[in-house]
């Protein structure tokens, strides 16, 4: 069985001093966490700083976004080879904030996923429904549509090489997470959909839950059979909260 995976997405937060302090407090404690892969995704300008501070620790570096093109006249964008220069092991693709605030379509997300995979960076594909979609009973359809867009681009088998993060939009940054039952229901559905894509015997990719994931709700969420870890936003900015979430993941192995 794959290790649990906990990814801290710092979003557009931090500065040199805060980053240093956060990691100085968290890293010694994270070094004692076993059986859990831990990743932090700082904003682009801090990849070098954070990467240097992670040297010698078991924590990996990730990025929050990437452009599918390798190079060229794309002002403000960052490519997969650039992430490789900074030894980013993971990259988030299709985070809901990218989709809703920056107009990323399923097709763009699929291109990013494909580019990350071919460049050797593990894509973390973020999917999730709005509250309106959930109330209309469309959550599963919306999520399968987001997954299918990527599978159509890279082939169903390539879904095994990434990570999928289910983040209901109504739970992101709201303080109101999905209940463990709601999350498990969607994760189970994603797992079932994946089984239809992957050749039998292929290990399923890890499925993360994200959306107001905190130290206090992590135990019940991580105890669900199809939740393999978390994508943590605001709680990843507080060292003790993030460490506790990672410890909970360890306890739920
Ligand atoms: O990438 C992380 C998610 O958007 C969750 O953010 P949050 O934990 O602040 O709700």
UniProtKB/TrEMBL annotation:
<comment type="pathway">
    <text>Carbohydrate metabolism; erythritol degradation.</text>
</comment>
<dbReference type="GO" id="GO:0006094">
    <property type="term" value="P:gluconeogenesis"/>
</dbReference>
<protein>
    <recommendedName>
        <fullName>Triosephosphate isomerase</fullName>
        <ecNumber>5.3.1.1</ecNumber>
    </recommendedName>
</protein>
<dbReference type="GO" id="GO:0004807">
    <property type="term" value="F:triose-phosphate isomerase activity"/>
</dbReference>
<comment type="pathway">
    <text>Carbohydrate degradation; glycolysis; D-glyceraldehyde 3-phosphate from glycerone phosphate: step 1/1.</text>
</comment>
<keyword id="KW-0413">Isomerase</keyword>
<feature type="binding site">
    <location>
        <begin position="9"/>
        <end position="11"/>
    </location>
    <ligand>
        <name>substrate</name>
    </ligand>
</feature>
<feature type="binding site">
    <location>
        <position position="173"/>
    </location>
    <ligand>
        <name>substrate</name>
    </ligand>
</feature>
<dbReference type="InterPro" id="IPR000652">
    <property type="entry name" value="Triosephosphate_isomerase"/>
</dbReference>
<keyword id="KW-0963">Cytoplasm</keyword>
<dbReference type="InterPro" id="IPR013785">
    <property type="entry name" value="Aldolase_TIM"/>
</dbReference>
<dbReference type="InterPro" id="IPR022896">
    <property type="entry name" value="TrioseP_Isoase_bac/euk"/>
</dbReference>
<dbReference type="InterPro" id="IPR035990">
    <property type="entry name" value="TIM_sf"/>
</dbReference>
<dbReference type="GO" id="GO:0046166">
    <property type="term" value="P:glyceraldehyde-3-phosphate biosynthetic process"/>
</dbReference>
<keyword id="KW-0312">Gluconeogenesis</keyword>
<feature type="active site" description="Electrophile">
    <location>
        <position position="95"/>
    </location>
</feature>
<dbReference type="InterPro" id="IPR020861">
    <property type="entry name" value="Triosephosphate_isomerase_AS"/>
</dbReference>
<comment type="function">
    <text>Involved in the gluconeogenesis. Catalyzes stereospecifically the conversion of dihydroxyacetone phosphate (DHAP) to D-glyceraldehyde-3-phosphate (G3P).</text>
</comment>
<dbReference type="GO" id="GO:0019563">
    <property type="term" value="P:glycerol catabolic process"/>
</dbReference>
<feature type="active site" description="Proton acceptor">
    <location>
        <position position="167"/>
    </location>
</feature>
<feature type="binding site">
    <location>
        <position position="212"/>
    </location>
    <ligand>
        <name>substrate</name>
    </ligand>
</feature>
<comment type="subunit">
    <text>Homodimer.</text>
</comment>
<dbReference type="GO" id="GO:0005829">
    <property type="term" value="C:cytosol"/>
</dbReference>
<dbReference type="GO" id="GO:0006096">
    <property type="term" value="P:glycolytic process"/>
</dbReference>
<comment type="similarity">
    <text>Belongs to the triosephosphate isomerase family.</text>
</comment>
<keyword id="KW-0324">Glycolysis</keyword>
<dbReference type="Pfam" id="PF00121">
    <property type="entry name" value="TIM"/>
</dbReference>
């Amino acid at each position: 069985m794959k290790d649990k995976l906990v990814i801290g997405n710092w979003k557009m937060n931090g500065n040199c001093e805060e980053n240093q302090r956060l990691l100085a407090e968290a890293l010694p404690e994270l070094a004692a966490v076993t059986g859990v892969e831990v990743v932090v995704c700082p904003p682009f300008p801090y990849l070098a700083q954070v990467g240097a501070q992670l040297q010698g620790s078991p924590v990996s570096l990730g990025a929050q976004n990437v452009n599918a093109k390798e190079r060229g006249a794309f002002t403000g964008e960052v490519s997969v080879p650039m992430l490789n220069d900074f030894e980013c092991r993971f990259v988030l693709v299709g985070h809901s904030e990218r989709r809703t605030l920056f107009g990323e379509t399923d097709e763009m997300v699929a291109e990013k996923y494909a580019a990350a995979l071919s460049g050797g960076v593990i894509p973390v594909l973020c999917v999730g429904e709005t509250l309106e979609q959930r109330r209309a009973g469309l959550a599963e359809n919306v999520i399968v549509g987001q997954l299918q867009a990527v599978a159509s681009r890279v082939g169903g088998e390539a879904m095994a090489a990434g990570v999928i993060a289910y983040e209901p939009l109504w739970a992101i940054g709201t303080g109101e997470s999905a209940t463990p039952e709601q999350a498990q229901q969607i994760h189970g559905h994603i797992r079932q959909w994946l089984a239809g894509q992957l050749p039998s015997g292929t290990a399923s990719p890890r499925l993360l839950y994200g959306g107001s994931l905190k130290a206090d709700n992590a135990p019940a969420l991580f105890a669900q059979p199809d939740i393999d870890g978390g994508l943590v936003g605001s709680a990843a900015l507080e060292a003790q909260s993030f460490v506790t979430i990672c410890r909970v993941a360890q306890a739920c192995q």
